[in-house]
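[Automated response] Your request has been received and processed.

Submitted sequence:
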Amino acid sequence: MLRYIGKRLLNYLVLLYVAVSLTFVLAATQLNPRSLWAVRQPPVDPAIVEAQLLKYNLSDNVPLFERYWIWLTGVFQGNWGFSPEGVSVNEQIASRMWVSLRLLLVGTLVGIVVGVAAGAWTATRQYKVSDRVVTFISLLIISTPAFVVGHLTQIGATWFNNVTGTRTFEFIGETGDVGDYPLADLVDRAQHLLLPTLVLIVLGAASMSRIQRNLMLDSLGADYVRTARAKGLPAKKAVMKHALRTALIPTGTYVAFSVATMFVGATFTERIFSFPGIGQYGVDTITKHDVNGVVAVTAFAGVCVLVGAVLSDIMVAILDPRVRLA
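Generated structure:
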């Protein structure tokens, strides 16, 4: 097992290096940090702008290979560079990573569990009323853009707060006004997390339920399940032991990548609820011509995909005994 994981990990690391290096080349040639000073009033002395860009390895007057080598040397020392304004990329990634983790962890994981359970259950009740109702609700949610779902929940939360005369839902930012009672800070964070977490659960469960239902239907119609039933195996055991386990193999791959990439996959949610997470930071780095920030976010996303790929290989090997690890 360890040898198998090691070989796969080495392949992924090579791909990650190539992807991040290409991102640096693309960002360094296409983004223009110098333009940030072109619109300032009063105009900034070009010599000062050049000195600032040289300080942070962002000057387009320096050959691309030289800039790449300086950047790569810094990365090996644990320094991902600075933005054109001098903000440390390391500090931004470190702080925003934990914001995204607090926002996305529960919502993503619960959404996956609910979606898998709903999909497997509706597959066993194909074309019944319960199956059609869940299918209709899921398709309605999937067809609705994430930002629309987010705004609708905010409207509903505002209505609930007004009717009840409470502040049950707080949905602007990560924290707000903290009271004087015990554990006030924890309660405040929970209030701000409640609504975006609910949105992530709903969106994740809707899409996951459709995937799992289709996979489960394929497994239920397989020959080995019909053979097991013909030999007298109870329907419940045939579904749980044979059909569900087989249907979870591709689900395991999807889930591994979903959990790993959740940090950069909820940009709309972070924007709508004003959470300063990795997804929002990734968009900001592009609009602000932050070459080092773009590369760092890409590298972070690549590491997430790498982790997801390794987890996927492990889960498939555990769920499917046909996989050879040698």
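Summary generated for your ticket: The mean pLDDT is 84. The chain has 13 helices and no strands.
If you did not submit this request, please reply to this message.
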